[in-house]
C-alpha cells in the first residue's frame, strides 16, 4: 500500500469487522439528546473511551487489543441537537438528512418490511422530538470464562449516561424474545454444537469478502479478490474515498462532504439495518425446489447465494460436486496449516470472467448482485447471444462495480428456537459503511437487489434479500442459468417468498476522533 491512514483519528469499527478480531458479542444502544450542552459533554465523555483503528499488538506504534470496544455515531437530527451550525449541516447528503424511514420506497421496504412493522424504537423515530434517535453506541466484547465483558462495558456506559441523565436518555423498544421490549439490541455469533461459527441463521458462512482499500495496514495481504480487478488480472486496493470522507475516490475526486474539512475528514456514513430472517419459509422453499433441482438441495442453496453453505466455497471455483470436493481438500489443507492467506485466496480470489453466462454463479445470486466485480463490463460475444468481457472496460476510472462497494459490519442476533416457524427473534444486524449513501448503499439496494436490469435479468430480484411479493399476480421468479454448451435447461425459481424482512434502522454519521472532540467542545466553525 502506498500510504497509511491516520489510524488514531478513525473509529475502529470503520476499518475492522470486529467479529474477525474475536469479538463474538455486541450490544447497540440508542439515545435521545434532551439538552444541547449536556449532550456535548456526554459525547466528550464517550470519546475518551472510543476505540480507534490503531494497530493492535506489541510492536512499535501498536497498542494492546482491548477486551471490549466502544464506538459512536450520530443521526442528522442528533447533529442538529448538538448545535452543529446550519452552514455545516447543509453539507451532509440529502439521504442522510431524510433518514431511512423516508427512503422506504427507494429501498423497497414495503409489505412486511414497511416501517409500520418495524420495532417500536424505529416506528416512533422522527415522530416526536422525545422519540428521535440521536446517538448510536456500539459495544463489542471478547469472550471470557471468568467475566462478563459485555456486561462490564454496558455497566460503564450506564454510568456515563447516569452522569448526564438530565441531557441524554436511552430509547427502548427493541424487540426481544417472546415479545419483550428491550433498552438495547444484542447481537452475537451463531453457535453450532457448542462452537462459534461465522454463519448466519440460514446456514451460510457470512462476511467473507469485505472490501480492501488503500491505507489499512492490517489488510495488506488480503487484496486478492477483495480489492478491484485490474486489466492485467491483478488486484489493487480500492481508493480510500469510497469509504472515508476527505480522501480521493475511484473517480479521482473527493466525495461530497460538509465543511469544515475537520468535521468530515476520516468520517463516513453508516447504514444500520435490523433484518429478520424467515428461517421456516426459507427451509420450506429450499426443500421444495431442492427435490426437483438437478444437483440437489445443497447445490441449489449455493445457487441462491453464490457460495456453498458449509465453508463458503465460491461457485465460480466449485460449480459442481467434483470441483467442490477438490476445493474442500485444498481448504482443509490450508486450515490444518493455519494458512490464512491460502484460505483467503480460496474464498475470495475469483472473478466472473469465465462465467459470463451465469452458468456457475447465477445472475440473481447474492454475492453476484452485491459485488458483481467486473462482470457488468460486458459486450456481445463471438457466438450469437453470448457475452464476453469488454477489453476496454478499465479505460475509464471507476468501473461500475468499484463505485458501489460497501464495508459490512455487525453480527447475527437472536437464536432460532423453532425452525418450523418464522416468528422468532432472529436475524442479522447489518451495518454498511460508505462515503456516499445514494451512490453506494441505495444504488445496490434499489438497482441490484430489487431490480435486475444491470444483470440482463429484467425485474428478477436478488434471491435472498429481494423484496419478493407473495401476490400471485406480481410474484417473483429467478433463473438458475446453465452453461451455454450444456444439455441441461435453466431452472426457474417461481413464486419466491420474502426470506428477509426489515425491522428498522436509520442512517448515521461516524465522526473522526478530531470531529468528536470538536463537537464535544462546540467549536465547529464552517468558515
**Number of helical segments with 4 or more residues:** 16
What overall form do the CA principal axes indicate? Answer: globular
Low-pLDDT residue spans: none
Major sheet summary line: 5 strands, antiparallel
Strand segment tally:
19
Essential attributes:
18% strand, alpha+beta, 25% helix, four-stranded antiparallel β-sheet, five-stranded antiparallel β-sheet
Which helices and strands appear, and what pairs or packs with what?
Layout: H1 12-15, E1 25-33, H2 36-47, E2 68-74, H3 76-81, H4 86-89, H5 94-98, H6 104-107, H7 120-124, E3 135-141, H8 149-163, E4 168-170, E5 174-175, E6 181-182, E7 185-188, E8 191-192, E9 195-196, E10 228-229, E11 235-236, H9 261-264, E12 268-277, H10 279-290, H11 297-305, H12 321-336, H13 340-348, H14 366-370, E13 378-380, E14 387-389, E15 407-414, E16 426-434, H15 438-449, E17 476-480, E18 491-496, E19 500-510, H16 513-521
Antiparallel strand pairs: 1-3, 1-4, 1-7, 2-3, 5-6, 8-9, 10-11, 12-16, 12-19, 13-14, 15-16, 17-18
Helix pairs in contact: 2-16, 10-11, 12-13
Describe the structure.
With 527 residues, the protein is α+β, with helices and mostly antiparallel strands. It has a domain at 279-396 and 449-500. Helices cover 25% and strands 18% of the residues. It has 16 helices and 19 strands. Helix 2 packs antiparallel against helix 16 and helix 10 packs across helix 11 (297-305). It is globular.
Amino acid at each position: 500500500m502506498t500510504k497509511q491512514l491516520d489510524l488514531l483519528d478513525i473509529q475502529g469499527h470503520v476499518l475492522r469487522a470486529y467479529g474477525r478480531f474475536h469479538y463474538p458479542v455486541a450490544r447497540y444502544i440508542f439515545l435521545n439528546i434532551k439538552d444541547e450542552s449536556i449532550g456535548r459533554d456526554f459525547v466528550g465523555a464517550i470519546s475518551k473511551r472510543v476505540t480507534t483503528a490503531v494497530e493492535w499488538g506489541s510492536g512499535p506504534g501498536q497498542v494492546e487489543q482491548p477486551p471490549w470496544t466502544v464506538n459512536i455515531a450520530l443521526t442528522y437530527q442528533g447533529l442538529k441537537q448538538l448545535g452543529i451550525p446550519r452552514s455545516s449541516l447543509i453539507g451532509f447528503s440529502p439521504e442522510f438528512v431524510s433518514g431511512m424511514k423516508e427512503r422506504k420506497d427507494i429501498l423497497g421496504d414495503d409489505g412486511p418490511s414497511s416501517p409500520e412493522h418495524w420495532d417500536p424504537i424505529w416506528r416512533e423515530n422522527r415522530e416526536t422530538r422525545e422519540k428521535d434517535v440521536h446517538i448510536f453506541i456500539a459495544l463489542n466484547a471478547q469472550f471470557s470464562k471468568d467475566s462478563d465483558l459485555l456486561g462490564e462495558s454496558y455497566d460503564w456506559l450506564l454510568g456515563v449516561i447516569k452522569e448526564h441523565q438530565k441531557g441524554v436518555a436511552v430509547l427502548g423498544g427493541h424487540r426481544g424474545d417472546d415479545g419483550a421490549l428491550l433498552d438495547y439490541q444484542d447481537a452475537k455469533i451463531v453457535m453450532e454444537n457448542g462452537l462459534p461459527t461465522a454463519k448466519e441463521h440460514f446456514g451460510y458462512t457470512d462476511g467473507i469478502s469485505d472490501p480492501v482499500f488503500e491505507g489499512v495496514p492490517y489488510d495488506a495481504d488480503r487484496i486478492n479478490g477483495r480489492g478491484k480487478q485490474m486489466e492485467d488480472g491483478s488486484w489493487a486496493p480500492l481508493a480510500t474515498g469510497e469509504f472515508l470522507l476527505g480522501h480521493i475516490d475511484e473517480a479521482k475526486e473527493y466525495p461530497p462532504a460538509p465543511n469544515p474539512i475537520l468535521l468530515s475528514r476520516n468520517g463516513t456514513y453508516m447504514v444500520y439495518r435490523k433484518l429478520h430472517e424467515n428461517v421456516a419459509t426459507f427451509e420450506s422453499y429450499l426443500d421444495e425446489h431442492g427435490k426437483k433441482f438437478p444437483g440437489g438441495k445443497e447445490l441449489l442453496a449455493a445457487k441462491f447465494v453464490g457460495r456453498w453453505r458449509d465453508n463458503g466455497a465460491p461457485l465460480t471455483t466449485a460449480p459442481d460436486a467434483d470441483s467442490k470436493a477438490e476445493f474442500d481438500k485444498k481448504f482443509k489443507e490450508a486450515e490444518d496449516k493455519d494458512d490464512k492467506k491460502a484460505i483467503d485466496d480460496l474464498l475470495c480470489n475469483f472473478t466472473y470472467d469465465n462465467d459470463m453466462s451465469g452458468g456457475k454463479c447465477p445472475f440473481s445470486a447474492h454475492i453476484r448482485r452485491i459485488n458483481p466485480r467486473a462482470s457488468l463490463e460486458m459486450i456481445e460475444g463471438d457466438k450469437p447471444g453470448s457475452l464476453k468481457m469488454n477489453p476496454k472496460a478499465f479505460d475509464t476510472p471507476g468501473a461500475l462495480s468499484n463505485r458501489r462497494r460497501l464495508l459490512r459490519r455487525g453480527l447475527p442476533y437472536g437464536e432460532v428456537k423453532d425452525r418450523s416457524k418464522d416468528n422468532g427473534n432472529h436475524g442479522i444486524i447489518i451495518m454498511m459503511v460508505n462515503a456516499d449513501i445514494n451512490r453506494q448503499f441505495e444504488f445496490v439496494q434499489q438497482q441490484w437487489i430489487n431490480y435486475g436490469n444491470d444483470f440482463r435479468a429484467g425485474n428478477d430480484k436478488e434471491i435472498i434479500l429481494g423484496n419478493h411479493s407473495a401476490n400471485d399476480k406480481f410474484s417473483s421468479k429467478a433463473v438458475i442459468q446453465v452453461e451455454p454448451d450444456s444439455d441441461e435447461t435453466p431452472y426457474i425459481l417461481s413464486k419466491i417468498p420474502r426470506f428477509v424482512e426489515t425491522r428498522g434502522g436509520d442512517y448515521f454519521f461516524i465522526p473522526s476522533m478530531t470531529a468528536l472532540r470538536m463537537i464535544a467542545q462546540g467549536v465547529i466553525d464552517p468558515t
